[in-house]
């Protein structure tokens, strides 16, 4: 899932390559992806792309006052294309969800970008709105993970009942963190994903806050400047525990373990995070608090 560092890097990439260009047309290939009808997608045609921003994990393209807002969900991505075909794509064919055509610069072939989504479970969402606050997910966002101060972060955790893993990925609490970076942050903070958010000591809150900022900042520094096509690989290369089940922890050498749920999983290091005890691989584990 693209998270704060990847979406912010896409913002930087589009500012460099797309801002100032005119949107000639937008092709919808997956009807379920579009979540709004007024203004229509066709209203973007002929308007200049004047800015790009991020709200949590939402990508916001300002098209002369209208906003094309995208949430890439679990398996969505943005692909920059050169020499886009003139014929519109056939709906429902392949992973393509949306195609944005940009006016050619000088004599170069027209280019633009595709929004795609792999797999059968479709969650990629596209909105055309007059202000980003009209998107329900944006209106509910908590403070950005790289903007929240330590005192506010501590207060948010203190008012949250539930496990740390869920707290970090709750976008209404802190915006921008998903499954992968929550695993990485908890590993860096040496905290169990099952520890209760409102039971942290002052030292644990400080460790978690500093780990959050350091993990996201380092990931962002690796991502910004990358081409869109290389960002996924760059994300994987920097992970310490996430998606590394069965491999040695790069910090202590213990085997990285996994807890599986119905539609997701988490990874952690027992030595670094749970006092050497493996967590029970079931949703309601009571092994460690």
TrEMBL record:
<dbReference type="Pfam" id="PF01149">
    <property type="entry name" value="Fapy_DNA_glyco"/>
</dbReference>
<dbReference type="GO" id="GO:0006284">
    <property type="term" value="P:base-excision repair"/>
</dbReference>
<dbReference type="GO" id="GO:0003906">
    <property type="term" value="F:DNA-(apurinic or apyrimidinic site) endonuclease activity"/>
</dbReference>
<dbReference type="GO" id="GO:0034039">
    <property type="term" value="F:8-oxo-7,8-dihydroguanine DNA N-glycosylase activity"/>
</dbReference>
<dbReference type="Pfam" id="PF06827">
    <property type="entry name" value="zf-FPG_IleRS"/>
</dbReference>
<dbReference type="InterPro" id="IPR000214">
    <property type="entry name" value="Znf_DNA_glyclase/AP_lyase"/>
</dbReference>
<keyword id="KW-0378">Hydrolase</keyword>
<protein>
    <submittedName>
        <fullName>Formamidopyrimidine-DNA glycosylase</fullName>
    </submittedName>
</protein>
<keyword id="KW-0863">Zinc-finger</keyword>
<dbReference type="InterPro" id="IPR012319">
    <property type="entry name" value="FPG_cat"/>
</dbReference>
<keyword id="KW-0479">Metal-binding</keyword>
<dbReference type="InterPro" id="IPR035937">
    <property type="entry name" value="FPG_N"/>
</dbReference>
<feature type="domain" description="Formamidopyrimidine-DNA glycosylase catalytic">
    <location>
        <begin position="2"/>
        <end position="119"/>
    </location>
</feature>
<dbReference type="GO" id="GO:0003684">
    <property type="term" value="F:damaged DNA binding"/>
</dbReference>
<keyword id="KW-0862">Zinc</keyword>
<keyword id="KW-0238">DNA-binding</keyword>
<dbReference type="InterPro" id="IPR010979">
    <property type="entry name" value="Ribosomal_uS13-like_H2TH"/>
</dbReference>
<dbReference type="Pfam" id="PF06831">
    <property type="entry name" value="H2TH"/>
</dbReference>
<keyword id="KW-0511">Multifunctional enzyme</keyword>
<dbReference type="InterPro" id="IPR015886">
    <property type="entry name" value="H2TH_FPG"/>
</dbReference>
<keyword id="KW-0326">Glycosidase</keyword>
<dbReference type="GO" id="GO:0008270">
    <property type="term" value="F:zinc ion binding"/>
</dbReference>
<dbReference type="InterPro" id="IPR010663">
    <property type="entry name" value="Znf_FPG/IleRS"/>
</dbReference>
<comment type="similarity">
    <text>Belongs to the FPG family.</text>
</comment>
<keyword id="KW-0456">Lyase</keyword>
<feature type="domain" description="FPG-type">
    <location>
        <begin position="240"/>
        <end position="274"/>
    </location>
</feature>
<keyword id="KW-0234">DNA repair</keyword>
<dbReference type="GO" id="GO:0016829">
    <property type="term" value="F:lyase activity"/>
</dbReference>
<keyword id="KW-0227">DNA damage</keyword>
